[in-house]
Write a structure and sequence with these properties.
Elements lengths: L7 H7 L3 H21 L4 H22 L6 H23 L6 H10 L4 H4 L3 H24 L4 H11 L5 H7 L4 H23 L4 H14 L1
Helix pairs in contact: 2-3, 2-4, 2-7, 3-4, 4-7, 7-10, 8-10, 9-10, 10-11
């Protein structure tokens, strides 16, 4: 792990401040919303899940988190619990008592992605959260690094749209080799950003480490 001063989660556990809380919210809000949406919740309910997840993290989440383990699965576990609570509240509003297993079935049936239906609802929600976290990492990277627009567009087509490399090459009128190179170029700098968020570290520290490594090579 990167030393404590580079750990956003460690700072929030030991010496929380408004700027770190704002950063935490900015980095993890979209992934938490993605986890909630994967459960089939409305936009309003997803927002409730986001707020409740943040409240639980503030009350006891940072204290209970084991820094030797990955942070994002821990955070998404809390988000999934909050989403199940939201499903129960929705069931009560509809005057139907829905047990946990049935709630999971409802959320699974509402997912439109066939790939999601091939896994459990909990795993599907985790996958959606992790994919959203990749998107946050990419947005952060693009704020600080310059890539050719076409390189970014091909990367997004591969990763977020899940298009086949040959289809991407055809769509962008380029070779399969150029598509693979675009993916490699972005991934080489995106991986440290994603790893930082996955571990609850400061992405700025990860970015500086990448730049130092590039200068050394």
């Amino acid at each position: 792990m990167i030393v404590t001063q580079h750990s956003l989660v460690a700072r929030l556990k030991e010496h929380p401040c408004d700027s770190d809380w704002e950063k935490f919210y900015r980095l993890y809000a979209k992934p938490i919303l993605a986890v909630a949406a994967a459960k089939g919740l409305s936009e309003a309910d997803c927002q409730d899940v986001l707020q409740e997840t943040m409240v639980r993290m503030c009350r006891h989440g940072f204290t209970r988190y084991d820094p030797t383990r990955r942070f994002s699965p821990f955070l998404f576990g809390i988000a999934k619990d909050c989403a199940l609570d939201a499903l129960r509240r929705r069931a009560r509003r509809n005057s139907h008592e829905v047990p946990i297993d049935a709630s999971e079935t409802i959320s699974s049936n509402q997912q439109k992605d066939p790939a999601d239906k091939a896994m459990s609802p909990a795993d599907a929600a985790e996958m959606r959260g992790q994919l959203a976290l990749v998107g946050v990492a990419l947005d952060f990277l693009l704020e600080h690094e310059t890539f050719a627009p076409k390189t970014v567009q091909m990367f997004k087509a591969l990763i977020f749209e899940q298009r086949a490399p040959n289809d991407v090459a055809k769509a962008f009128a380029t070779s399969r080799g150029n598509v693979d190179q675009a993916k490699s170029t972005v991934l080489s700098k995106l991986r440290p950003m994603y790893a930082a968020l996955d571990q609850g570290l400061d992405p700025e520290a990860a970015l500086h480490s990448v730049k130092r490594s590039c200068h050394k090579t």
